[in-house]
Each structure stands twice: as structure tokens, then as C-alpha cells.
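Complex 294.
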Amino acid sequence: MPSLPLSDNAGQTPVSEVPRLPPADKARYVNRLFSAVAPTYDLLNTVMSFGLHKGWRRAATDLCRLKPGGRALDVATGTGDFALEQRRRVGPSGWVVGVDFCEPMLRIGVRKVGGRAAMLQGDALALPFPDDFFDAATMGFALRNVADIQKTLDEMARCVRPGGRVVQLELAKPRGLLFRSVYYLYFQRVLPWIGKVIHGRRESYAYLPASLKEFASREEIVERMRRAGLEEVETRDLTLGIVAVYSGTKRRAGSAAVEPGAGTVAGTVAGTAQGGKRATGAAAAGPPSDGEPG
Ligand SMILES: C[S@@+](CC[C@H](N)C(=O)[O-])C[C@H]1O[C@@H](n2cnc3c(N)ncnc32)[C@H](O)[C@@H]1O
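Predicted structure with S-adenosylmethionine bound:
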């Protein structure tokens, strides 16, 4: 694989500093990082999680409460695994859209989903969809990577209808002290070397533990989801807490705000159909089609 500089000042910014980069630099770094890892992303995901990521996605998608014929959005969809899981729930009459800003990840996703989801290029911080459109929006393993967590949650909440669901699946810090030390040993020492063996670069996978170290606590994410206008916000640990699922329901008109100052999402960003670019070879992002494969 050709060597790709992962930041404009490659070699000067230690990976451990990346989570603290200014927003534009972090977005550029993350986009380049996933461009570089795209060809081996799926394989590494399966190897590094011992295949557990499939069950985590199923558990997270259950929390979307999607029904046949529903509309689902997967933000930062990468190679489209969540979009495929959503398709299983909404069936052939439903509508599934995956959006990501990294073209190489999307290209692999487009091939993999094969028309079962529309795959669009776009930014999680400015989603190219109208308000109140989807029944549920998911994000998997990407909240650590975005330059602005609150804006991302605001955008996801904006795009789902009142009563619709927002679900986040993300790496977490295990709570048990003993298990946490063993896990960190694996995560910080072993995992970057697995990355090097399969992908050829150690740096790309050294970013993973660095991003988790700097990532918000469970409590902060719950708080930010409430601020985004979500209620019934819950967090659930999976696999001894190495992963957490966060879910919430978009507040319906007339339902009381849970947090002071919350509820600023719906209606604040209108007509954002601009800004989303269709990925090469992507399926048409039209209205639900009865003939779409399930
Ligand atoms: C670890 S991958 C996760 C991919 C996929 N969600 C999954 O579960 O396998 C993180 C993804 O987030 C995407 N991403 C990060 N920041 C983004 C942003 N601001 N807008 C859109 N995509 C973003 C990256 O391009 C990458 O594909």
C-alpha cells in the first residue's frame, strides 16, 4: 500500500495528539486515516473484535425499533455494515441511507451493500437531509472521530422524526479495574501490531487507543444526547463494557424538556439538501422502492 501522509504535518503530530487537534485538522486527519485503512478495514474489524462487532451491531440496531417499510439513516457508515443491518429490519419496502465523508470507505461500502442502501458522501456535522425525515439514525464507532460531538448528535436528532430513535455504538472504557488493565494491554500494545501485520502500518491503529483515551465519558455522551433534544436516553454496556450503546428518542412536540436548555434541535436547520455528494457508483437516493432487494 502506498504511504499516505495522515496529517498535513505528518511525522510532527504524534498520534496521541490527534484527538486534540483543531476541528478542521482532525477532520482532515480522520478522512486520510480511513482512506488509508479502507482496503483492510473490514478484515481488521473482524480480527480485532474477534468477530464480536456483528453481534454488537445487531444489539444496537434492535434499539432503533425499526419496522418494515421504515426509513433508516447510518451516519459515518464507512463500509456499510450498519446500513445492511438496518435493511434487514426495514425490508424491501423500507429506505436505508448511509453517509460518510471518506470516499475510499464508501467505495467499498457501495460494492458491499450492492443497492440495498443508498450510499452518500457527506459530513456528519452537516447532514444533507431535511428535518424529521428518518425513523432512526445510527452511528457506529465514529463518535470518537468527529470533530464536534454535540453538533453530530444535534444533526442526527434533527434528521429523525419526533418519536424516532438515535443510536450510538462506540468503544468504551471497561469499568472493572482488573479487566480494564488486561484490555488496555491488548488495546495499546497488541492491537497496533495486528494492524501492522494486516494493514502494513502501525500508526493507523495506534490512533485507536489514543482516540479512546481522550474520548468523552458515558455520562457526558448521555448529557449531550439530552441536549440534542433526545429523551429516554439510556446507555448499555456490551462485552464487559469494552463497547457501549447509547440510545434516545427524539422529543415529541409538547413533551417536557428533560434538561434545562435542551430541545434546540428540531427546526433550527432547514433545507439542508445541499452539501451531500453522491458517492461514485452509489445507489439512487430516491424514495422507497418496492423492488429494492432486502
Ligand atoms: C471506525 S469507522 C466506522 C465505520 C462504520 N460506522 C462501522 O461501524 O464500521 C469511522 C468512520 O467515520 C467516518 N467519519 C468520521 N468523521 C466523519 C464525519 N465528520 N462525517 C462523515 N463521516 C465521518 C470515517 O470516514 C469512517 O468511515
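The chain has one domain: 16-249.
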